Structure formats: C-alpha cells, structure tokens
Amino acid sequence: MSIGPEASITDERSAPTDDPAVERALEEKAIAGRSLRQIAWRRLKGDKVALAGGIVVLVLVFIAILAPVLTKLFGHPIGEFHGDKIDPTLGTPIGPWGGISREFLLGVEPVSGRDIFSRIVYGAQTSLSVAFLSAFLSTVLGVIFGLSAGYLGGWVDAVISRIMDFLLAFPQLLFAIALVSVLPDSMLGLGDRWSRVLVLVGVIGFFGWPYIGRIVRGQTLSLREREFVEAAKSLGARSPRILGRELLPNLAAPILVYTTLIIPTNILTEAALSFLGVGIPPPNPSWGGMLSDAVNFYRYDPMYMIVPGGMIFITVLAFNLFGDGLRDALDPKAR
Amino acid sequence: MLTYLIRRAVNAVLTLLVVTLVTFGIFFMVPKITGSDPALLYIGKTADAASVEGIRTKLGLADPVIVQYGKFLKGLVAGRDYANGNDVTHCPAPCMGYSFKTDQEVFPLLMGDLPVTLSLALGAAVLWVLIGVSTGVISALRRGSLLDRAVMTGALAGVSLPIYFTGLLALSIFVYWLGWLPNADYTSFFVNPLSWASGLILPWVTLAFLFAATYARLTRANMLETLGEDYIRTARAKGLGERTVIGKHALRSGLTPLVTVFGLDLGALLGGAVLTEAVFNLRGLGYQALTAIRGNDLPVIIGVTLIAAFFIVFINLIVDVLYGFIDPRVRLG
Question: How far is A208 from chain B (nearest CA, A)?
C-alpha cells in the first residue's frame, strides 16, 4: 500500500514474479536434495547487505518490545517535563546538538524538555506494531481475495479484479486522512493510543490488500493450469484441499516477499498520517508526530527533526534491504 | 481500436460514478457517527432553531440519502438550485455545494488552488522522468559498475526517505542555513515566470528526488529484463550496432511498463500532493483538503476527493489510450 509517502504507487515490487515452482524445478536439478527453503537460506546468508538489514530490523523489534525497560534504564518517563534543560527565553534545549548529554541520550524536546530517547523508543513500538499488523491484514485479505479470483475465475474474478482496480484508482491518502480524522478517539475500552493504532491498522491494511491480491491472483492463474493441480483433481481432491495444500505452499514465497516489502511502506504511511496530525494523538509518542512538532523548531533546533526523521529512514531502509534480499534469495530471476 | 477506446471510456466513467457513490456515502455517514449536525456546521452554533431548519430545508439535508445523492449527481452534471420557499440560490454545474466554513462555492474554490498543484506536479514530473529514466538506463547498461552501484545505493536511500523529512532537511539546508534559495512560495507563471520557478524549485527537486529513485530502480529492472530477451540477442547476432540495438529495440519495450506507473503517479499527485504541500506550505489542492478535513468541512472534502479521483481516472484513461498505440497486443485483450 502506498497511500502514505508520495512515492510511486507501483514500483518494481509489484511486477509479477516468475513462477516459483519453475524456479524450484531448475534448482533441484543443479543442487540435488535441497528444499527451496534451504536454497533461499543459503543465498540469503551470502547476501551481507540483506543480512545487515535483517539484523537492524531485529534490533528495532527488540527496542520496541523492551521499550519500558530501556526507558527505565537509559531514559526518563515519556511524559516527564524537564524545564531546567530548556533555555527560558528561546525555548530551545540548552547545550549543543539539541541538548544531547549522558543523561539525555538523544537530547530533549524544545519547550517541554521531554526526553527524546524515550519518545523514540516508544515511537518504535507504535510504528512497528501498526506496520506489522496492517501488513498482516493486507496479506490475509490479499491472499483470500487473490486466491478466490485466480482459482474460481468467471464472475468472481471479474468482481474482485474490478474492486482491486477501483481501490488502486482511489485517492487513498486523502481518504485515509479523512476517515481517520472522523473516527472516534477511543473505543473498545482501549486507551486513545491503542484504539488509534487499531484504526490505523484497519485503514492502512485495507488499502494495502490489492497489492498482494493482484500478485496472488496472477500466480494462482498460472498455477491452476499446471499438472500437479490436475493430478490432485483427478485423485478426487476438492477445492479447499487444492487451494490449501496444493496452491498455497507454492504461493508462500511471493507472499512472504511482498508482505516484507509492504511493511516499510506502511511505516511511511503511519508516519505520514501522524505528521499530518491524524495519526497517533499527542501526547503519545510517534515518529511522524515528532517530525510534525519539529516543523516549528527545525530552524533553531535541527536535531529535533533529524532524530525522528533519521529513525524513520533507518527503519524503512533496513526493511527494504532485507525485503530485496529475500526476494533475490527466493526468486533470483526477479532481479 | 475504436471499441477499445469506447470500452475504456465507459470504464472510466463507471469508476468515477462508484467513487462519487462511495465518497458521498461515507461522508454522509460521518455526521451520524460523530453526532454532528451538518446544518449546524453550516450556519454556526449560535443560530436559532428556525434558521437551522431553514438551512436544512434549503440544502435538502432532511431528504433520504439516496435523494440527496441524486441531487448531488444532478448538481455535478447540470447544476442545481438550493431553494427554501422564495430564497433560491443557483449553483452552476459542476456544482459541488458550498463550503461550510467560508460559504464559497466548492468548485471555483478548488479551481483556484489547482494551478499550484498543477505547477508542482508537472514540474516535478519532468525532472523525475528525466533523471530517473536516464540513470536507470545507464545503470542497466553498465550493470555491476561503480556507477551502477552508486546510483542504486542512492536510489535505495531515496525510496526510504519520506518527503516530510527530506522537505524539512532541504528547507533548513538550502533556505535557512546556506540561503541559496528563497522559501517555497507560489507565484503565478503568468505574473512572473522567474519567481514562479524560483519559488517552486525546492519542492520540485525534493519531490522529484523521491520519484526519481523509484523510477531509476524500475527502469533498471525493466531494462535488464529486456536486455536478456532472445530478440535482443537476435538483433545483436544479425550485426546491428549497439546503438541501434539499445535505442531502437531495447528502450521501447523496456520503457513501456513505465507509462502505466507514470500515469498512476501523476494522477495521484494532481489530486493534491498533500504531504509536499503541507511541508512547503503551498496552498494547493492537498493543502485545501487538509484544511477542510481539520475543519470538518464536508462539501470541500467530498469535492477534493472527487477531483483527485477524476485526475487518477482521467490520466489512466489517457495511459490506456496511449497503450493502444504503443503496444498492439492491448487492443486485442
């Protein structure tokens, strides 16, 4: 899904990949007795850049999970004001580099003096949970609709394809902003932070499914006609078995790759919505929200903009590197 | 060819119709969910009950949804009259109603913002196509070289950088620190072409950098795929010069898929480059949309969404037509 960043709606990722089953057959001739998973893992291990991306991703996940611990050890509570770290006349942090010191690892916020390190760490929690959950939602919807369209064909395919075309031709960002801004702040008994996370997951995940759906549909269309499906049919297998046991395993590789690759897009979208003021509501920390606050201060305190912006960049880059590597490992012809 | 064109055009109109339906439906539901009264939004909270009812009748807000939608569609096509007894206001086609906040007619209001978005999107598009496609082609031709790796590293960084970060960085470096450029600002091209360009150069470059990165990656991947095709080998084998092989054979099919992507991207931007306009404070369609959303100004929100959808659908129609000429296979499909 690409409703967030004003980047290309379709990039090279959405180009249909080659049939993974063909790929596997070729490989098996070359290296006897290795499964696709083993081959892919060997290739991935050789790809240093992709591995580095993967490690950064893991570190970020740990940071997000351990946010309360990290804050306790190295930071200050996210809502705590530190007026003594702020120049009373200018409102900017005292000291060079936005007030970075041993006590405040990434400096303090202008005016309020809140600890940026703690807010970044908690921001990782929000950012990653929105990105992962919405990617999961897109994948589930995309696989269900893509499989149905590709396998059943006929009017089901026509309807689903039309819906996908429609969603892709929809002013998504505008719509997401409008939708998120009118939904209630808290619901289901969750606080405003997690209910807004749910809303974001719903909106981002919903607009993302056609990207997965199109790929799954295309792959299913070509797999459906192959001999092993015919064999299963002639043995009397019913549609659910063919879908679940014959087709789905062959779709695992592209699904995994494209799910990995929509995560960075989702991170950018969440940050964009928070930047525009309709994402995670303040005072809850989010990277996009911090960037939005930084708009008023970046001329006098550039670090306050660079830290969250840099975090977004590093996170998205790491996911992109890992996703590209995964794609190359599972499907070398796509490169 | 003609049936192909007609089919695409009908398709486009149908898509737009669905967009109006969905947009109208959702935003009609919004006041119900949030418990606000559109008539009150329009007239202000201090009004007495009689004038609120007057407005309700005049705007037709008491009608069933389907009737309101019908009137809305009629207004778009033929214009409509808002009437409450003798008090009649005519809204000429394409009528999108009146802003709740400023009482202005929505369509002319949005048309006033269009030149800003149009200048921003088209200027950036020229830059990103030139830069992205040329670096992509060169990278593909010199695959594995230092240049290729440098370009691809840059491009990967580019696709990972959001405009709301690069925009702020560009502003702080080039405007406030080095002072090389004026702050982003829109002056009409017809008033002063020079300040039009100088006021937009920073948004153009920042926006183009983002897209150029994607296009370079895409172009490179497509070109590499094409260069591996049998017919390229055939062309080389029959003794054609490298210039002809690349220029006449590879480029055409290597770059054709880009037309689709370009259409989608440009269409999406023309409906309002929300983030870019927000970062650089440019008063275009996207900025208007944000203001309307923050102010709960439903008619303007619906209007911007429709115009944005129109651009996406319209540009895609053009792309489809172009494809009919570029790629003969499409006509049969």
Answer: 16
